[in-house]
Amino acid sequence: MSGVTPYYTDDPLMDGVRSQHRMLSEPADDDARQLYAGSCTGCEWTSRTPLDAHMLQEAFDEHMATLQKEAHRPAASAGEVPGDLEDLRGCMVDGYDADDVNRVFDRLEDATGLSLVCVWEYFDSAGVGGNSQFYVSLEDDRLHEIAGDLWEWLNGDPDCDSTPASPGTSSSWIGSKADFTADFEYDDGRHNCAIR
After folding, report:
1. Could you tell me how many helices (H) and strands (E) the chain has, helices first?
2. Tens digit of pLDDT for each residue in 11-62?
């Protein structure tokens, strides 16, 4: 593999992903075996065990291959919406509850393969409540901020021209890594979680 350019570096859809996800490595032993621990600047990925330099690069390339696969699962082209999702434009303009989130996010996941979650402020006997925020859930339970037009497409006024006509491609929905870990006190096993 030495001297071979990884395939994902020539993929235009990976331009933003490559700038965010870079491999970090540090020595993981004190002897002459030259083993390294690896991590990623853009997510929680780690090499899990110390590896030699070649194996560490291969492990990171596998991680990038997973991100590349996710980047190639668009819901539609940037200007189009699959016919069976058109009714979701502005569907949350008047608010939403856990059932709405599960219904809408199930349909988006079926269409794109991308898992979305809504993180609520709390859960009690009445259900989830308080402030909420949408995230993209990637491998290893990593959460990323929602980016692109998805939030406004779902929550904007469907009769307003400023509401996007399309949510954009699913790869455009993956924003920066969330600044907290996905360790929730409540999880409905679908698309709703609560911090406390």
Report:
1. 4, 8
2. 777 877 888 888 999 888 766 678 999 999 888 888 888 899 899 999 998 8
The angle subtended at Cα 22 by Cα 19 and Cα 26, nearest 5°, is 155
Instruction: Locate 21 and state its tokens.
Output: 């996800």
Place of tokens 């189009």: 80
Cβ count near 148 (within 10 Å): 19
Listed as own residue / partner, the contacts of 92-96 with beta carbons closer than 8 Å and 24 or more positions apart are 92/154, 92/155, 93/155, 93/156, 93/157, 93/158
pTM beyond 0.90: the answer is: no
Across-strand partners of 193?
Answer: 119, 187
Q: Hey, what amino acid is at 2?
A: S
Task: Classify the phi-psi angles of 14: left when phi > 0, otherwise alpha if psi is within -120 to 50, otherwise beta.
Answer: alpha
